[in-house]
Automatic annotation (TrEMBL), chains A, B:
This is LacI family DNA-binding transcriptional regulator. It comes from the Bacteria. The keyword Transmembrane does not apply. Residues 6-62 form the HTH lacI-type domain.
Length: 307, 307
DNA sequence: GCTAGTCACTGAATCCGTTTAGTGCGTCTA
DNA sequence: TAGACGCACTAAACGGATTCAGTGACTAGC
């Protein structure tokens, strides 16, 4: 058995052409007139030798790898991440690219960037934050805005009119949390309801304080739309500590439902998001391809005990 | 401004030597006699030009990138992952390598492997599962075994003698879950106590059934040591549904404490693990370096309401 | 009958760092 | 005084795919 892998030269020799021609065939290089017979010979040789282009060599020549790097940042634990990544990966693969996801710090990324030379670097927070809406959609809702509207809509349907918007204190969620606040405020205004932004710190004491202030300053608030499930859990814990219960004292909905929502005590109502389409779309964008018709990513509230 | 980056040839020209010599200096190639004066000239030129070796070119020549790929598998959400990755990343960086973490499927990884050609691929489940103990430790506990002992020790100290071991039904946790079972059984036996393995499926109905069976077949069981926090949450939810409460009916401890433990209702006692040292060690191993003195990674049970 | 153009293909340069196999020179040993 | 050896360096090959600039054969147009 040959210990080393087949190269483009081996393929060329087997097909009786030059490496140049093999490259033209394999990459469908435009402007090259190569008859089907020759193409076929090359492709048979490729199949027979089990040839795969050496990605590193190609990257050296092309200046970058056929890789896309996705920076997940603080959304690391986000539930829709899995479907987003799956969709993105699938679409990238279709175009001969692979996906790398980083969850780490920026400094850890420097070396990585140098080492893999990705074609594109995607920053999830920035993508989401930028509101990725298609050009000329005339102000129609885009992905995140639609989700926010669905979450709020659930509370509106249940008759709530004064709704607190619970945002995380962690600054790494910016500019996402401000965006969400604006989207919910706008959606509430459209429906003739009121949105009251409140900041929920991670620590129980801070969360308890924020909750107490809400109760004191906005006694008419009857529901809370949380930034994500984790914020909802903190709110629920603070309510429990204060002797309050959902939904009687305050209804609570999560966002981007994760596996813990159903297990929580009480089980949390939350917005379930399928982000696969969003991922596919982001992939096409990253590759500079047209993004196709924009389908709004589906989402719906799974109702449990807290609303 | 020069639009393209500095190459080794630029450095060589600036330092008045050949590219070969620059390479020898930068890589501290053994067996080469290069006076300090020349080394200094080269290093100044490097600093002045801001030269960084082109990782892709190097990878092409060397046959692999200075990268290590870590396969997180089902441990993706595991809380100690963060510290493990941080430690590993730090140590790898010290040796000029970078870390890539994959959370995805094997098929998605194929292309990635080809594209980045990592020096080593690490499979977390296999590393953990292999019991990574130093040679000749005479049967002393290694990392995971020590953690299991600490978790169980917490229950033993509280007077429990008949302890259920709650393992996930998800087969992707193998061989980790079997290993844990054996470790806890052994630790219990050493203390003259009994360990009762039970399998906890994700779905509430299955979990309820498993719990009911435990109560029926082992009425003397007073505590549950869970495989991880998620299993503990499922158990807690099943107990709540059955009208049982922790710790009065059954004490429950988690493993590898995550951010939800403190928020849970009731707040979950769990084992907090600092895996940074383990990560550093795994990194040194991956690079084929000596792993240094083996310090047992620290862990302790954070006691809350469920024990 | 000659130029222009297309077709089908190829040689060689290129990307950039590493490494092998030397070279020239001086010193030490037998 | 030849041979061996160490020192301080270098030229050229190498890894493998891509791509620019052709080349020879043939057809079409005037």
């Amino acid at each position: 058995m040959t210990s080393s892998r087949a190269t483009i030269r081996d393929v060329a020799a087997a097909a009786g052409v030059s490496p140049t021609t093999v490259s033209f065939v394999l990459n469908d290089t435009p402007g090259q007139a190569i008859p089907e017979a020759t193409r076929h010979r090359v492709r048979s040789a490729v199949a027979q030798l089990g040839y795969t282009p050496h990605r590193i060599a190609r990257a050296l020549r092309e200046g970058s790898s056929r890789l896309v790097l996705l920076r997940a940042g603080p959304l690391r634990g986000s539930a829709s991440m899995a479907s987003l990544i799956a969709g993105m990966d699938e679409e990238l693969r279709r175009h001969g690219h692979a996906l790398i996801v980083t969850y780490g710090t920026v400094e850890a990324e420097r070396e990585l960037l140098e080492a893999v030379a990705p074609r594109t670097v995607l920053d999830l927070v920035r993508i989401y934050g930028s509101g990725d809406s298609p050009q000329g959609d005339g102000g129609d809702v885009d992905g995140l805005e639609a989700h926010a509207a669905v979450q709020l809509g659930h509370l509106l349907e249940l008759g709530h009119r004064s709704i607190a918007v619970a945002l995380p204190a962690d600054p790494s969620f910016e500019p996402l949390s401000s965006l969400r606040r604006r989207q919910l405020e706008a959606a509430a205004a459209r429906a003739g309801a009121t949105a009251i932004p409140i900041i929920i710190p991670r620590e129980p004491s801070g969360a308890a304080l924020a909750l107490a202030r809400l109760r004191a300053e906005h006694p008419r608030a009857t529901a809370i739309a949380a930034f994500n499930d984790d914020v909802a859990f903190v709110v629920l814990a603070a309510m429990h500590a204060a002797g309050l219960s959902a939904p009687d004292d305050l209804a609570v909905v999560g966002f981007d439902e994760g596996e813990h929502a159903a297990l929580w005590n009480p089980p949390l109502s939350s917005l379930r998001i399928d982000a696969a389409e969003f991922g596919r779309r982001a992939a096409r964008r990253a590759l500079g391809l047209d993004t196709g018709a924009w389908q709004r990513p589906p989402s719906q509230v799974v109702r449990r005990a807290t609303t």
